[in-house]
Amino acid sequence: MSNQQEVVLSVRNLKQHFKSGFGANKLVVRAVDGVDFDIHRGEVFSLVGESGCGKTTTGRTIIKLYTPTDGEVYFMGKRISAGTLNNKMTIKQTRRQARAEIKELKKAMSEEIAKLKSSGATSSDSRMQSIKQSYESKINKIVEDKNNAIEAEKQDIANRKRDTAVHDNELMKNMQMIFQDPIASLNPRMTVKEIIAEGLRIAGEKKDEVIVKKVHEVLETVGLLPEHASRYPHEFSGGQRQRIGIARALVVSPNFIIADEPISALDVSIQAQVINLLNDLRDEFGITILFIAHDLSVVEYFSDRIGVMYYGKLVELAPKEELFKNPLHPYTRSLLSAVPLPDPRYEKGRTRIKYDPRTKHDYSKELPTLHEIVPGHFVLANGPEIAQYKKELKA
Fold first, then answer.
1. Side by side, which strands form the sheet with 175-178?
2. SS3 state at 352
3. pTM for the complete prediction?
4. Tell me: the pLDDT tens digits for 12-21?
5. Is 369 helix (H, G, I), strand (E, B) or coil?
6. Cβ proximity of 40 and 62 under 8 Å
7. 170-294: what fold?
């Protein structure tokens, strides 16, 4: 299997729901609602979408800053995170179904016994005893099956929690995150050396000379100087702070990095420097990157494959060239229509596409699923939409 085909990260039916309010005002926010994708070794996979679409929450859930509500995350073939919502719902449904079945059996038993009594039978009648034994046997079987099913779900919950705990140390060394805000993500009371070295110390490195050497090396890797190690975050510009954040992620030699909008808070000139730095690091160290952004022009330059998110769902996923050449989902087309081009005449006559899911889709009869329209190009659609998209590609 080639590096491009080797799956480093698998996300399966990932859900992250947040609850707010109480009683009648209780609200469940489905920030991430059933997301599936794979990321291959050495590639840059980008998640794009407007603010609030769930892309940052997806990244934070993958690296376990949030515990997933449901779904599973596999890293290097091992399950590192798993939600238990489906298990809990299955337990509730099993109990509810068992209660309903037992209620029906008891009702049927009472009706049969009433018929016998109306015909003159007494409680000592053998037919009465036979009916009771038959129904009690059926009820006991339902209770036994219910208990076995619930025990299996509870065991699966325990296994999911155990997997989550077992791989934490390994995950910390191999997966790191670059945060969006280069100011808020750095502790102002710590020096650059302390910030970068924190991961090394947590990983078990105790020799100060080794730590200092690695800190200086990684500072030079990201374009800073060893003498910067003794300074504090407020002494640096925004671009330099982001480089410190990148150095902190790199110092433990991870093979997977989640870059959460690492350039959105920076000036345009600094954005290019940070993107070029990430590109160089990818080429030099073979790092796999999950790149989270809302700027499609940057994503087009930096990515191999792109996933488009809207309201917690992945609505389209395709290789970069395919997505920009043949955008199929109306929301993707809306995003692309908003990308500015350095041509005043084109911009003056350009028509922007507005996306309104209430008018663009009819899901009253069939709900959408993520469907592969052509190899590697997935779109969230139902049957009629799939037929329409295939027709558009052939035209």
1. 175-178, 256-260, 288-293, 44-48, 305-310, 313-319, 377-381, 369-374
2. coil
3. 0.84
4. 999 999 988 8
5. strand
6. no
7. Rossmann fold (3.40.50)
